[in-house]
Amino acid sequence: MEPTRDEFLHMPWPWVKPLFYILTFGSLAICVYRFWRQSSFWKQGAESPAGKDWLANVLKHVIGQKKVQGSRPKSGAPMHLLMFWGFLALLLATTLLAIATYAPLIGVANFHEGLYFLIFETTFDLLGLAFVVGVVWAISRRLKILSKDGPLNSVLSFERQDWEGLVILLMLGVTGFLVEAARIATAPQPADAFSVVGYGLSFLMPTLKPIGYVAIWWFHMAWVWAFFIRLPDMRLRHMVTVTMATARMSDKTPGRLEPVTVEQVEATGKVGAAVASDYSQWHLLSIDACMSCGRCTEVCPAHAVGKILDPKQVVADIHRAAVNGEPIADAVSAEALWDCTTCYACEEVCPAHIPHVEMIVDARRHLVAEGALAGSAGVMLRQVASAGHAWGQDTSTREGWMKGLDVPLCRDGKPFEYLFWVGCAGATDPGAIKTTRAVVELLQRAGVSFACLGKEESCTGDPARRTGDEFVFQEQVSKNKTFFEKYAVTKIVTACPHCLNTLRNEYPDFMARVEVFHHSEILAELVERGDLSPVNSPDGQTTLHDPCYLARVNGQVDAPRAIFGDETHFNTDKSAIVHALEKQSDGPRSLVEPEHFGVKTRCCGAGGGRMWMDEGQEKRPSSKRVRELLQTGAEQIAVACPFCRIMLEPEVQQQTDGQVRIVDLAVLLQESNQDS
């Protein structure tokens, strides 16, 4: 006789099967009904189409757990993977058993026997054990964290529903093995040893009688039914809601904010999100999928320096506002909304793909439309609107940096390959002007065909848009679009990652797409071709600060390092973590990496309009970032963004008494090519 397993063992009573099915399908019906009722929470938002790649997204991010795998080891990622994949294995095992049971109804023999049965028992026993280990790990980790003060105490959730969920999962796994052990103890078979865990536990039940097996079986099923009934109320529901949110995930380009149209304003009578129903259904679904893991809070630069902003709490507050009909700004607080640097660190680590930045900016849009923004940030908005310059400079000053250089201008009428986009900082800030001039000299040295707009250039509108003034941004787009079309611009190079992101990812909503490059990308290509010599920097002398909008948002981490001639092997996938020790090449390297770099870089604090907002020194993200950069022991800090240099330089000067230099990549490359 082929080895197999008997169903409803030791249960000859005719009422057992009907009762089992009534309770099982009844609990499932309750679960589905309660999720259906919960859907009214999501449906209060505006309709949003499902993403085109919904199946690929589910396979990659839900089944594959890509973002969880990309978490740092101490984040509890291995524990979660054991739990999730173990649970998925048990679900698959139950499904296969059901298929085998009902296969005879369609004329297919029950295949749960023989070699298949033996492989099945061993495989799913070991995967079930991994599940139990993961749950025990999660419980012990929480108890350990709860027993002492530490940073995770502020980011993890310790509510009753969290403990309830872990207890139910643990009982599902443990009682499942007890049922298997009881079956082996009361009805032994020659192949029982293949059920490795149950077989071992069966030795603890040498005198168990059939009625004992029946009691354990019903006890296990009670936990299964409890799981179904309680699932919609526990944070474990994210197994369902994250899957749904991932399937409906927007296909929008990273770093792109959704435009607001005049037609939308006329139809709704408002700009941005005043209440939660102003968000899309996908936004609200993603909020409901939040499992309060705290990863977003853990990486938030504003929260790290003691500001009120807590991304996890923002999600919880918006959820509460959606339930109560409370205004977003009241639920979250305007202060928390303005604290955000829009660095996307929260979104990069979020397993539920919650669009924190987009929702925060939408709430800002409403505040700005209501006139709730004053102070230096309000001045910046007026300056962009009136002068087309974030610092309020007259357009004539945009050519001041060209003094002494033979800079080709678009209006000269000569053909060019690249438009060199200078940006407000690049034309105004003394340090940024050094970068601008260095880029021009390097392009000319390498024979690159380019031209500048000069006084015809106007702010991209990025500071206005991320501060919340969508229509000032769109006015800037309209101005610049005119000149792009006038001069048939097809390629743009810029030294500002914020301009890069806006021109590359957001302008295509309003005009024909053009190719946009960061200056490090063009310069790295020129170094690779031999047109320029790499930066001459002794090993360990220089560390690099990756700008958020270059590395994390636009996925470019190789080009800045290639300028130093380093052989890099960085994974630019936004869900991948970059560890310095793992990613150093075998050969000598000019750069020494800080703790957080590449896509895991830490924000300088300038984004989201924060450059123009006043804050005390003790609450500046730049201060914390500089301390981390200085811990490398490097003698100079290379940057690739004018905003980053402006924010970091005062901190570097203060913390080192001017002993450490902070300088843009282009300036370093210019210095290395002066005598070549």
Architecture overview:
The protein is elongated. The chain has 676 residues and is mainly α. It has a four-stranded parallel sheet. A three-stranded parallel sheet has the order 5-6-7. About 3% of the residues have low confidence. It has 32 helices and seven strands. Helix 25 links the parallel strand 3 and strand 4. The protein starts with 15 loop residues before the first helix and ends with a helix.
Label the structural class.
mainly alpha
Question: Largest sheet at a glance?
Answer: 4 strands, parallel
**Helicity level, as a percent range?**
40-55%
Number of strands: 7
Radius of gyration: 30 Å
Order of strands in the sheet with the most strands? 2-1-3-4
The tally of helices reads: 32
Mean of all residue-level pLDDT scores: 91
What sort of overall outline do the alpha carbons produce when their principal axes are compared?
elongated
Residue share in β-strands: under 5%
Summarize the structure.
The protein is mostly helical and 676 residues long.
Question: How is the secondary structure organized here?
Answer:
Elements: H1 16-43, H2 54-63, H3 66-69, H4 77-102, H5 114-146, H6 152-155, H7 160-186, H8 196-202, H9 210-230, H10 238-247, H11 262-268, H12 281-288, H13 295-299, H14 301-304, H15 311-324, H16 328-332, H17 334-339, H18 345-349, H19 356-369, H20 375-387, E1 418-421, H21 423-428, H22 430-445, E2 450-451, H23 462-467, H24 470-486, E3 491-494, H25 497-506, E4 515-518, H26 519-529, E5 542-544, H27 548-551, H28 558-562, H29 580-583, H30 621-630, E6 636-639, H31 642-656, E7 661-664, H32 665-673
Parallel strand pairs: 1-2, 1-3, 3-4, 5-6, 6-7
Helix pairs in contact: 1-9, 1-12, 2-10, 4-5, 5-7, 7-8, 7-9, 10-12, 22-32, 30-31
